[in-house]
Amino acid sequence: MQGITVDGGNMAEITEWQARCDLAAAFRLSYRMGYNVGLGNHFSLMLPGYDDRFLVNARGLLFQEITASNLVLVHFDGTVLAGDRPVRKVAWNIHAPIHRGNAAARCAIHLHPPAITALSLIEDGRLALAHHNNLIVNDRVVYDDAMTGPAVNDEAEGDRLAEVLGDKTIMVMANHGVLVVGPTVEDAFHELAVVEGTCENQLKAMSTGRKLREQPDHLRWNMKGRWGDALDSRLYLDAWRRILDKEEPDYAS
């Protein structure tokens, strides 16, 4: 794998490869956890050292087929810089504007996981302040209630999403799914896992027909910024990568 050149050393190559392996791991884990649907859904990661190009999954590959080396490198103008497969137009239409419009969103994960997607299908679907995780998560969420249809041929939809996202890290997209962003793969993926699990618990509780027991507002963390500043995001991804190293080592090939 050719690495970027910084200060004449090989650390840039290691940094790029580590980023590729982390992103490939997130795809494999999303498949294991049942977060993705078919050939759709896409994750992207700004290439270390650059502000105008990003890694993204290739069109036509299942999540369980993705490896560090078959991720595609795409320029903000849509040019494929590295990779032997095309990129879905809808992926570029969403991810390029998100990265371009938010310097903190180095990693962007768009999925249709079952619990958050179900919440997005409910009129006024919102995360309650019921689970302890909601004390951390809820102030980081924005709800996009516009029903604009898929961003298949419209980059302007990505610009709109970037504006709606603002400084939040989680966007529940009406009738659609979720977008989670962060400065690294581990930040975005761990936050995704927490919010999806929390939403699943809420929907199970709601299915009883009983009233949710909500917590007082003063217990909110009012947490902003990097998810990993308060939670063990790197340790979480590293732990899962140890499992993948034993059971699916090709992810890092």
Features:
7 helices, 253 residues, single chain, L-fuculose-1-phosphate Aldolase, alpha+beta, 37% helix
What's the architecture in CATH terms? 3-Layer(aba) Sandwich
Query: What percent strand?
Result: 5-15%
**What strand line-up does the widest sheet have?**
4-3-2-1-5-8-7-6
CATH class, named Alpha Beta
The secondary-structure class comes to alpha+beta
Helical percentage? 25-40%
Query: Overall mean pLDDT score?
Result: 91
Could you say what the CATH topology is called?
Answer: L-fuculose-1-phosphate Aldolase
What is the count of β-strands? 8
Shape: globular
Low-pLDDT runs of 5+ residues are 1-11
Order of helices and strands: HEEEEHEHHEHEEHH
| Count of folded domains | 1
Radius of gyration: 18 Å
The span between the termini is 10 Å
CATH homologous superfamily heading: Class II aldolase/adducin N-terminal domain
Main β-sheet: number of strands, strand sense, barrel status? Answer: 8 strands, mixed
Describe the structure.
It is a single chain. Helix content is 37%, strand content 14%. It has 253 residues and is an alpha+beta fold. The protein has one domain (11-252): L-fuculose-1-phosphate Aldolase (3-Layer(aba) Sandwich), CATH 3.40.225. Helix 2 (89-101) runs parallel beside helix 5 (155-165). The longest helix is centred in the first third of the chain and has 22 residues, at 11-32. The termini are close together. The relative contact order is 0.15. Residues 1-11 have low confidence and may be disordered.
